[in-house]
Amino acid sequence: MRSLARRTVLRGAGAAVALPWLEAMASAQPRPLQPAARRLVTVYLPNGMVMEDWTPATEGTGVALPLTLAGLAPFASRLRLLTGLSTLGLPVVPAYHAGAATKFLTATSPSGARGTSPRAGISMDQIAARHLGDDTQVASLELALEPADIVGACDVQYSCAYQHTICWASPTGPLPMESSPSAVFERLYGDNATASPEVRRRALSDDRSLLDSVRESLGRVRRVVGAADRARLDEYAESIRSVERRVRAAERRGATEVPDAGALAGTPASFLEHGQLMVDLIVLALQANFTRVCTLMTGREASTRTYPELGIAEAHHEVSHHQNDPERLRKLARINRHHLTLVAYLLERLQSAVESDRSLLDDTLVLAGAGMSDSNLHRHDNLPVLVAGPAPLTGGHHRRVPAGTPLANLHLTLLDALGARVERFGNSTGAL
């Protein structure tokens, strides 16, 4: 068996396919000692939560998961639920939705009136990306399930940019969130350095797979690695083909159908289809070490998306202002559970992707939650937040922290687990 470099890339006509971890790479470069986790995925849930259906009744290990989190039961031992975290200790601004999104990863309130440059703070994921991105192709991926131009109402006097992203490269650098699966796929596997755009388009025409252009080099790799690596390569290639087929199918539908308010050409109209496709792209990116930091906004604050698949005709934002009406609360709870199905799908995909003798879930911290709790009152305390991933950091535990504990304390804790230690973050008062 021949050894391979970890960053082996197969190149073809306009394609560049990075390989997943293989046993043949271990002998080429022994894996160094690592911190508790080497990857970070953040999933943002907009417009608050029905907290009664999110919060476990008791503290400790092995607690019963409430209705909204019931879909995460197969991963109960990999969860850490935290109740009581808050962003209320930050400067108060009249921007409830902009503040919810902005403070979630920056622990900084938005500032600056509409028409001026947005300003907040560097987000926790970008600090992690600077630490983890030295040997990756890109430091981080920022993805969303809604394009910026359908966000709906923006907070008065505040730039819509605050609701379009939760990721900030610097205090004045909000990062755009990509909602197109085809754009993400092209970023992962396109390589115009090896072909002109015309050649690239021809290679992708007639339902041909990009893997066709690297078939020969992929075959050469298969011939020099062991049986376990060949099986892993075949599984990885099939995963790419599956995602590619779904991306192309969405592109074809987008070219022939009139998209609804929640979709653009080339983007699946179904929330779940779109979300699962983006999750699969995240897992492929992590497998190939394309990046180690990914963020997914399942929706934008004040989202006007409707959920006909759930029998809900009203916009999410409208439903979130439920006025304690039982029917609206039931609808909001269904939307909450629908969003959490993507978190469950992400954990399932990370668990099934193997690197060396570990799954990606063993090396990946998943932070999921919302920047708002009670959406009817726009509350920014007692936030719905969970962490999933390596068992030593999670353990199937629910903990109630003292009321008002800064969300930034969790950020500080996660950065420490990733080896990106900082003295202070936002309004943090110490690690959890």
Plain-language structure description:
The chain is an alpha/beta fold and 432 residues long. It has two domains: 38-179 and 274-417, Alkaline Phosphatase, subunit A; 191-266, no CATH class. It is built from twelve helices and 14 strands. It has helices at 23-28, 96-106, 124-132, 161-164, 181-189, 197-203, 215-224, 227-256, 271-287, 316-320, 326-352, 407-417; strands at residues 9-12, 15-18, 39-44, 60-61, 79-86, 141-144, 168-170, 173-174, 293-297, 354-355, 358-359, 364-369, 385-388, 397-406. The strands form four sheets. The chain has an eight-stranded mixed sheet with strand order 4-14-5-13-12-3-9-6, sandwiched between helices. Helix 5 (181-189) packs parallel to helix 9 (271-287), helix 8 (227-256) packs antiparallel against helix 9 and helix 9 packs parallel to helix 11 (326-352). The longest helix is centred in the middle third of the chain and has 30 residues, at 227-256.
